[in-house]
Amino acid sequence: MKVLFIASVERSGSTILQNVLAQSESVFAAGEVRNLWDRGLGDNRPCGCGTPIRECSVWTSVLREAFGGVDLVDARQMARLRDRARARHVPTLRLPFGKTLVKHRLGEYPEALVGVYRSIASVSGCEVVLDTSKSPLLLPFLVGHASFELYVIHLIRDPRGVEYSFQKRKVSGHKRLKDHSTAKGALHWILMNKAIEDVLGRVDCMSMTLRYEDFTERPRECSDIILNWMGVESALPWTNGVSLHMTPTHTIVGSPHRFNTGNVAIRKDEKWRTLLPRENASRAWRIAGSFAKRYGYQES
Length: 300
Ligand SMILES: [Zn+2]
What we know:
Order of helices and strands: EHEHHHHHEHEHHEHHEEHH
Strand order of the largest sheet: 2-3-1-4-5
Bound molecules: zinc ion
Largest sheet: 5 strands, parallel
Number of domains: 1
């Protein structure tokens, strides 16, 4: 069994990457597993298959195997433990005994998460479990686990593209973003990517860095590279270089793109170049630009 974890800033295109890889018969795309407890089980949001999580036959089987049944999951406790450690705690890992401290805070959470991964593999029969949870903090507690190999993709998107996506959601009235500002977003972009780099520098696992822009420009080539890297042989149902036939997934939580099915073309979204106000684009670049250059991004 292999676990493929996508670590990234939000709004970096992880759902599109997930949707493509999910079309391999060897990959089970689980979505943002970190949100299984509250947004998944608590709010009973729709699974990628359209059925509420608590009624989805795949997730009920997974949770029965991992916890004895959907109603036996102490979802509130799991969410509480998960929230005890966030990406901002990554610097703690550098301190003497820092890892022990974070592990203590997380309690039974890492083992419960591993139990969910194992059950997904067992129920689905898939070789790879794909988790798009993004936050890197749990990675040190997953690496070296005897029951699976860990692969991590550090997915990066131009900070101005991320900012445009956040602004669109803020304008549409997304509650969580009412205090969002370009400066906050750009700082978060730096801190999160730095945290992912820090963690990946400390854990012994297979990892690669992938830019959203490269993936969406050459989706077929990039997904082939990823599947080969993990030793997965099954081919994806591409109908040409950029389109593939998508069937429903069983992803929990994520962008609405996860419901896309049928013949779907993967296209690079760079609307920020024309639609993000120049002032916001300049501010995002002034703050995050020098860090973004290390990933090959240019000012214009
Ligand atoms: Zn489902």
